[in-house]
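Exam review. A common question shows you a sequence with its structure tokens and asks you to describe the fold in words. Practice with the pair below. Do the first one on your own.
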Amino acid sequence: MTLSALAARAGVAKSTVSLIERGQGNPSIDTVWALASALGVPFASLFHAESPADEMSLVREHDSPVIAVKQAGLEGDGLIIRHLLTRTGGALIEIYSLVLEHGAVCHADAHVTGLFEHITVAAGSVEISTDSFSEVLNRGDLISFRADRSHSYRVIEGPVRLVSVHEYPRRAPLD
């Protein structure tokens, strides 16, 4: 895929993609999500490609890489995302922990077509919305929804701690 085609498919400037390709860019989380969607790859695969061992895997939160931070006072503020797991042996899944500060409102662009997001609330209270629903979740609640459309998170009582599982659609085998 050419740089121009990737930029067009992701809806970002060609110069942005060029800077990232040369290791000189500092893309926003939204830009990285858009590039991953345009490439049809898991978000975390743009950072590393290792899968955990087959037998057992343990990830301590303080050891997991922070892949996105949106500082308080900015649009979509008060969010920290840590990548916990990517598994590719069966259905492709990724697991993230998210911390949203009190009062945060975060908007997410559509992910890869067919992707389901499964969110469990570990602490706090959050409203999750798409164009077709708006639900308030409390500690212990789980919601599963198609995340291939824009969606948002609004903290009701925080900080909020979420565990998000991204379930990618199975791809047809190559001929």
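Now try the second one, then compare your answer with the model answer below.
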Amino acid sequence: MSIEEAVFGAGCFWGVEEAFREVEGVVDTAVGYCGGATANPSYKDVCTGTTGHAEVVRVSFDTDKTTFDDLLDVFWNCHNPTMHNRQGPDVGSQYRSVIFFQSEDQEDSARATCDAVAHSGQYQDAIVTEISPACTFYMAEDYHQKHVQKNPQAGCSINQNR
């Protein structure tokens, strides 16, 4: 088994985590915060919109069973990548569309699929997804981890603007 990690932000991390958990070959997920300047931010801190962090999902996957490109397919299809700093009813920079690449290969794949989506005719508006180098991942509070699995009645809508 060869394990790699990928980090994606696509709006509220609850529903995004659930979308990735359903992929065969995903061995673990964790929700947290990336891309900001504040060390060890809390959910309350991130929600102020002043820390610069995005709500993200860290996906650990078995490369013998799935690929980064498979995960990119889930990413591009679970949210609207043309929405600037929002998804559905959630508004703020913490809900931005972002891929934090872990390697040059991940960066190349992220940029290639971004270009493909941009030229697919699927969207009239421009893709606003950020593609940035990996940064420190701060684990979100325990009650956010696997939230949809623990609270199916609460859920979290993703893909609302497609």
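Model answer, second protein: Residues 122 and 133 are 27 Å apart (CA to CA). The helical segments are 13-21, 43-47, 68-77, 104-118, 147-150. Full marks require stating both points clearly.
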